[in-house]
Amino acid sequence: MTIPSTVRVLLVDDHAVVRQGLKLFLGLDPDIEVVGEAANGEEALQEAGRLHPDVVVMDLMMPVMDGIAATRQLRRAFPDTEVIALTSTLEEHKVNGAIEAGAISYMLKDASSDTLADAIHAAARGEVRLHPEAARRLVRDFRSPEMRESLTPKETIVLQLIARGCSNRDIAQDQGVSEATVKTHVSRLLSKLGLESRTQAALYALRHGIATLDEG
């Protein structure tokens, strides 16, 4: 995965004042460029196709097309663009829906500008960022051990490192191998477990006791 020196961001929220505030705060980071805005999911898909952002910061509750539906379609159409769900709710169906749709991170709108900027840079590196309570709700009822036997020891280590939020580069450095080798391990374990994203892999590790929320 090529990590951009400047992360190009599309802001999606149905409230113009929210978009303006986000644009103002993110503008303080010289390595983040807000390249566009959208007021609903349909506009987000159009703008993503036109602008090809690295990261989309996506509100979930919007008219015309909500953020979950937009995230699902956007990730299918533009797999190289990551989505951060930025919302005001921790309702379980929203948290689960956003992650299952393909969002790499789940943040609340009261997050500090530094926290959001960190999540944007992390998303550009393929790293997961989850609000702590969102993570707890996602893993609370899912801790069975099935499927662990299907992973090789190396894949298990890679999965644990993904759950800690490590990028392929971090994992390569930790394990003393190339990023290409790590990419192969990640691809194989996602396929083996029937998962579509690193976020889902991180949640799988938490749900099945392969990693814990206290690691990191």
Automatic annotation (TrEMBL):
What's one Pfam family here? Response_reg
Any one GO MF annotation of this record? DNA binding
Against SMART domains, the record matches this protein to: HTH_LUXR (SM00421), REC (SM00448)
Residue span(s) of domain Response regulatory: 8-124
Can you tell which superkingdom this protein's organism belongs to?
A: Bacteria
Chain positions with 4-aspartylphosphate modification: D59
Q: What residue stretches are annotated with the HTH luxR-type domain?
A: 144-209
What InterPro entries does the annotation carry? CheY-like_superfamily, NreC/VraR/RcsB-like_REC, Sig_transdc_resp-reg_C-effctor, Sig_transdc_resp-reg_receiver, Tscrpt_reg_LuxR_C, WalR-like
Q: Which residues form a coiled coil?
A: none
Alphabetically sorted, this entry's keywords are: DNA-binding, Phosphoprotein
Q: What are the BP-aspect GO terms?
A: phosphorelay signal transduction system; regulation of DNA-templated transcription
In its UniProt entry, what is this protein called? Putative DNA-binding response regulator
Q: Which organism is it from?
A: Deinococcus deserti (strain DSM 17065 / CIP 109153 / LMG 22923 / VCD115)
